Every structure is written in C-alpha cells, then in structure tokens.
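Record 1 of the preview.
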Amino acid sequence: IPGALLLAAAIGCSQKPAEAEKPPTAPAPGEVGKLVSAALAGKPAGGISVRDALTRPEGEKAAVTGRVPGGNLKPFNAAVAAVVLMAPEDLDKEEIKNEFECEDAATCPACKKVRDKHGVYVEVVDQSGSPLSVPLEGFRGLQKGSTITVEGKVEKFGKDKKLVRIVATRFYPG
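->
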C-alpha cells in the first residue's frame, strides 16, 4: 500500500496544472484582419535566405525566406505576430536538430546561442510600426517546420549589434 500511495503521488506531481493547459485567448477579429491584410497572395520574387539576411546592413529592405525551427524550441510568440526563422540547411544539421531537442530549448543558453547565431527574429508590424497583437502560429496552417517569406527592414540589435530582426510589413505563409 505505501508503494501504491507513492506511485499515485508521483503521477499526480508529474501532471501539468490545469492553468497551464488553458488554450490561448482568441485574438480580436480586427487584429486577425490586420494579419490577413499583411499576408501576401504569392511569394515575392528576389528573396534572400536567412543566411544572407544575417549579413545585410541595418536599414536594408529585403524579402527573406526561412523555415520555422522545430524541436522543443518555442519559435512563435503567442502574444504578437513574431517568429524565429532559420535557413533550412542549418535546421537540417544533426547538431542543430539535437540541440533543439533539448528539454529546456525555450530557455536553454546553448539553444539560445544557436538560435541567435543562425536565426533571424521576425516581427510583423502595422503601419505605425507596432507588432500585430495576434500570433502567426496557426494562421493559414503555419507551424513549426513551415516556410515563411517576409518583406521588411533589417535591424541589428543586442549589446554587440550582431542579432538580426526583420521588421516585416508583409509576409507570405508558404
């Protein structure tokens, strides 16, 4: 009987609290409309890869195509239209795949280092430059592993200005 009680307690402790399982709040219809109007009908011509975007000067406008990382990484921001993109050839490397399978990939310093070195951060913004307050994940089937092309301006950030963000006004999910 003591063993059964310990097993029951262990099972109970390993379950997530009910609050953690609540689905995210649905975005306001007006915000979804902004996302729809920012979506391109077709993939823009002349796009560059994420690898190329990492070397572009700040302020340059570009169309950048990349893939959303998988594994245990959390590449989408659930609060705003933001996502991390990486080059498919980098995501296909075994060492990167293995790194992102890390149990704590969302907060792991080693995973962050890989993400920062090989990825670009994308924010889809409105006309005023504010990120749209609706997530990209799920929009027209976007998920981990999806390919996305964004049009926007390259920004450098971080203490050494080596991190790259694309402030996108338009995107193509596919």
